[in-house]
Amino acid sequence: MKDYMRERIMEIAAYIIETKATVRQAAKVFGVSKSTVHKDMTERLPEINSEKARLVKEVLEYNKAERHIRGGRATKKKYLNM
To answer: Which helix (H) or strand (E) holds 53?
Structure first.
């Protein structure tokens, strides 16, 4: 794995852990695709740092469980603004 990738992976992992960010939010902040963030966090991070990988996995699982609620709020907001 290249050094720039390792550095990016660790930075994104720290950001997700600190801010409880979604994959989409992290991708936007770091200027990479959602697919890249997802692959970095689920496949590459465990090879580098298993403890951070565990913490990131907890955040991502929480966000996945809550996404239907965020989607409902977004839809409600959309129709209230019409």
So the answer is: helix 50-80
